Amino acid sequence: MIMFLLVPNVFITAILLFAGMIMPALSYAGGIVLNQTRIIYPLNQKQSNITVRNTSELERYMIQSWVEDASGGKNRDFILTPPLFVSNPGDENALRLMFLGGTLPTDRESLYRLTVKAIPAVNKDEVKERNVLMLATAIRIKLFVRPDGLLPPVEKAPSELNFSRNGSEITVSNPTPYYITMVKITVNGKVVSKNVMVPPMGHETFPSPTHTSVLTYKVINDHGGMSNELTGEIK
């Protein structure tokens, strides 16, 4: 958690980030709501719109948005308009996301992260001569750039995962061109990992204290919802 403290003539800013949030349909930060928890951006698409809604009946917010690369570094492959605006109570605003170009793989997805920060408006007269503690909150969601013509179809990708054991760990290999987020990974009825994102043509590992040949899991789909339970064989 990051906070900002308002005192006379002093303004210290910080952010509370909800990274990798998995929620059924919406992403929240204070009274600010996004209409999606992840963005699938077709590589040949000119733009994508994200809806930002202020659900508060009283609070105004300054909204600031930006795109980072997968490691959290600054990135100029995308532009967001407007990058900064005021959201009044009940407002619904559209953020326009545009890819500016750049060299990206055409045989697999690329990962970015979109952050939307909500800073509560401050009445200077009300906080004058007083110490006021306030929180700026932010939503961070994944942004997947998807080239055309990837195979297999995305809905079939989760069943392509392969599992192998190495001592007390299980390795999951992803031969598909998609990022696959596994959740509720269960071995012998026990959840061994809550959330694992496996990169395209890559692998990840997670602990498994019990030896068995089968595990179950769910994945997050393009709409941010969870799939039905899937079964994997550990080889």
From TrEMBL:
It is found in: Periplasm. Residues 31-150 form the Pili assembly chaperone N-terminal domain. GO terms for cellular component: outer membrane-bounded periplasmic space. SUPFAM superfamilies: PapD-like, Periplasmic chaperone C-domain. Keywords: Chaperone, Periplasm, Signal. GO terms for biological process: cell wall organization. Residues 172-226 form the Pili assembly chaperone C-terminal domain. Belongs to the periplasmic pilus chaperone family. This is Fimbrial chaperone protein FimC.
